[in-house]
Amino acid sequence: MPTTRRNLFRLSAATIAALALRKVRAGAEPLKPLHILILGGTGFIGPHQVRYALARGHKVTLFNRGRQKKEWPGEVEELLGDRNTGDLKALHGREWDVCIDNPTTLPFWVRDAGHVLRGKVKQYIFISTISVYAANDKPGADESAALLQYSGKDAMAETEESFRPHLGELYGPLKAASEAQAANQFASSTTIVRPGLIVGPGDQTDRFTYWPVRLARGGEVLAPGDGSDPVQFIDARDLAEWIIRAAELRTFGTFNATGPREMLTTRGMLADIGAAVHSDAQLTWIPTKFLEEQKVEAWSDLPVWVPGQGDSAGFARRSVKKALAAGLTFRPLSVTAAETLAWFREQPADRQAKLHAGLTQDREAAILAAWHRQGNAQ
């Protein structure tokens, strides 16, 4: 994937567009300063929310266990407590304009927050996930699609300790149950945000980072399918900034929050990432059937990608029309890719030595060799 003058022009134009968009975002004054309570705030999207809120003149309070210390570019009030043990004393007797609930998967956390904050906040924004949906086979499905149902004994009895060993099985159902509890506690003051894959600088899962890192390394790169499968994801900064604007505008309802604006294929994604990181890699597209025979798992072994047929035909084709109408915007993929790679290269050597997602170099080489042994050309 050599970098041509055309690719450089595309990247330059995308960068200029991104800077212009940032200027618009920074220059758009909020309707009025808000007092924002963020539950969590030190994970992946939280710091972006804090910095954007401060830049727009809002007052921010964080409530968490104080395990991850952060430096902020302005004054931030930090309250300590533990929702898993029911310690919400620091929130009693206080009022805020809006509460943004970032880390919650457990319904009883929402219930307990409601007991303390109901009537004390004008808006409760719950960050959910598109994993709440019961099926992923219908392209274009919107927020009205059926949700997963929790089938255990008591969703309200689930704790961090009971939930973690069954993360893959329970994550979606418990998020759906938490959404229901949010509506029960905060009624029409509730905003439900269902992000897709969240990506960008600071992502410790490497579920997107794999591709900028791999393409920047160059050589022959295993690419999944025939390049026509759709992909969806959102830069953490775009998500965080939109959530703050939704608070400013008192935007209520339920929204799928993923991107991009128009459908993006795997081929298009890798082309844009490759141009952004100045890659000279050669892509070898390998059919899904062969990858399955080699025990290659979509999403984990080859991140972002899921086959766009059958039961997963709609997984990366969720409708985001409602969020777009509510002001969701996206920076160019080239910017996300380049800045993600730059962030990764700033990490300690041991962190860079082993990605948390994607194929290892040895396994990728073995699969490519197996593919070529069958007489398939690059």
Radius of gyration: 21 Å
Q: How many helix segments?
A: 13
Termini separation? 13 Å
Major sheet description: 7 strands, parallel
Question: What is the domain total for the residues?
Answer: 2
* Strand percent estimate: 15-25%
CATH superfamily of the largest domain: NAD(P)-binding Rossmann-like Domain
| Percent range of helical residues | 25-40%
CATH architecture of the largest domain: 3-Layer(aba) Sandwich
Q: CATH topology of the largest domain, which one?
A: Rossmann fold
Strand order of the largest sheet: 3-2-1-4-5-6-10
Q: What is the overall silhouette?
A: globular
Which stretches are poorly predicted, pLDDT < 50 over at least 5 residues? 1-27
| Beta strand count | 12
Order of helices and strands: HEHEEEHEHHEEHEEHEEHEHHHHH
